[in-house]
Amino acid sequence: MTTKIEEIENKILRAFTGNAFTSAAAVILGFLTATFILAAIGKNPLNMYQAILQVVSGFDSRHGTWNVRYIGEWLVSSIPLILCALSMAFAARSGLFNIGAEGQYIAGLTAAQLIAFYFPPVPVLHLIVAVTGAVFAGALWGGIAGFFRARYKVSEVVATIMMNYIALYAHRIVTLRIPGSNSFRTPDFPATASLSSSMLSSLTNGSRLNYALWFTIAAIIIYWIIMNKTALGYSLKATGLNRNAAFYSGMNVNLNITSSMTIAGAFAGLAGVSVSLGIFVNGRILTAFDGYGFDGIAVALGGNCSAVGIAVVGLLFGMLKSAQPLMQSRQIPREIASIIMGLVVVFIALRTGIQLFIEWRLKEKARKMNMETR
To answer: Which are the contacts of 363, defined by CB distance < 8 A and separation ≥ 6?
Structure first.
């Protein structure tokens, strides 16, 4: 009887402490906490949920109108979050902590803008070169940190943090040299370098949804294939689990580390071009970080570094970002969206504590059942 009870206990424990359950519980707890906060400061939490409903469905409950543009803008906000999260997650699967997605994003953004202005405006080819250049720039920026980690044992955390600032200020120095630029922006991009899609825009009633949507879907699929269906993915995960074991089994650990950071940087570089050529008609000269790389860390953690999880949490965080102006119009502090995102990450970080609590509860129940059967 004891053995049977233990089997039942283990099955329940596996079911309720799995990654999917933990993430779902963290999201629910985040929203519940935000609801209590709003009620405590005298705001109606229902207004927050109405704003969220409008983002995901386009339906405005106040006026009974429907506008699909909100859905398009929701996807636009989610795209760079998902791509930067893939960057963080790819490195994490190899046992690396890539805080440099922001710098890799800026490298991609900068390369895309330079190619947009200086490459001949040949239709189709111009855009292909801009996207490819951005991906290679992000990959190079990530690969540098990976090389120093592999060759000289330099902490990737320290290296990527410093390279974020190098990317930001190098971006300003280079981009300010574009003719017609001022301290904040450049002239408009040539039409041949734009990711804008008239079809996607018309389907979403004039939103900024663009071809980056297809790149993002492709990136999620590529991430899943590499990690789950290729020898490279197996080698990277083995390196992340135990570098010494991977080394003694014949794997090139240094190459895996460098490759992991390079591919991670490529994802972030793609995020840079999705923003620079997809959302804006002119180039931007950044004065501070956009924050997509840092938010991507939260998305990756929330999605447990899995392709599907990142897509879902990226859409969730993109929804919250898109809902901020609508919340504000309903007298809800827009900061509540950031609070929810932060709480989700905090609750996920408490996964071990939650698992220990559930395990203790199940063991107590099993112990009582065992005593009753004696």
So the answer is: 9
